[in-house]
């Protein structure tokens, strides 16, 4: 399975971030697969944002839930992350990740910088 993130790179404060995770080599609707979004701010550890399951259910980090939405397009085999009201502290590398049979699969990550 390969995951590829893409996004705008630079976003202004208060704007909305939209990221795409394109999946190949496996279907996002395959039973029991969860598709996570995770980020890593500069100089800090990984922070889990949320996931969407194979059936389309979503679950979010409580600290980000109010301004985060994860969705998917089954026909495109793609998962999306939308985060609104961005702040400079949302600057990070954003990753999508799944786990299949105990093996973690990560995208290469996409840098998002929140700055005016």
What are its keywords?
53% strand; 4-stranded antiparallel β-sheet; globular; 11 strands; 7-stranded mixed β-sheet; mainly beta; 116 residues
> What distance lies between the first and last C-alpha atoms, to the nearest angstrom?
36 Å
Are there runs of 5+ residues with pLDDT below 50, and where? none
The counted number of beta strands is 11
H/E series, N to C? EEEEEEEEEEE
Q: Structural class, judged by helices and strands?
A: mainly beta
Shape verdict: globular
In DSSP terms (H or I, runs of 4 or more residues), the helix count works out at 0
pLDDT average, as an integer? 96
In percent, how helical is the residue content? Answer: under 10%
How many strands, which pairing sense, and closed or not: the largest β-sheet?
7 strands, mixed
Strand content: over 45%
* Global Rg: 13 Å
3D structure, described in words:
With 116 residues, the chain is an all-beta fold. 0% of the residues lie in helices and 53% in strands. The chain contains no helices and 11 strands. The protein has strands at residues 2-6, 10-11, 17-24, 34-40, 47-53, 58-60, 68-73, 78-83, 92-100, 103-106, 110-114. The strands form 2 sheets. Strands 2, 4, 5, 6, 9, 10 and 11 form a 7-stranded mixed β-sheet that branches. A hairpin with a 4-residue loop joins strand 5 (47-53) and strand 6 (58-60). The protein is globular, with a radius of gyration of 13 Å. 26% of the residues are buried.
């Amino acid at each position: 399975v390969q995951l590829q993130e893409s996004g705008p790179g630079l976003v202004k404060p208060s704007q909305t971030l939209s990221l795409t995770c394109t999946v190949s080599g496996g279907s996002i609707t395959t039973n029991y697969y969860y598709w996570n979004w995770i980020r890593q701010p500069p100089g800090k550890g990984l922070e889990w944002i949320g996931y969407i399951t194979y059936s389309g259910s979503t679950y979010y980090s409580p600290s980000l839930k109010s301004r985060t939405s994860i969705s998917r397009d089954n026909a495109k085999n793609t998962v999306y992350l939308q985060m609104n009201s961005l702040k400079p502290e949302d600057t990070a590398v954003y990753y999508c990740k799944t786990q299949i049979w105990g093996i973690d699969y990560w995208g290469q990550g996409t840098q998002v910088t929140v700055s005016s």
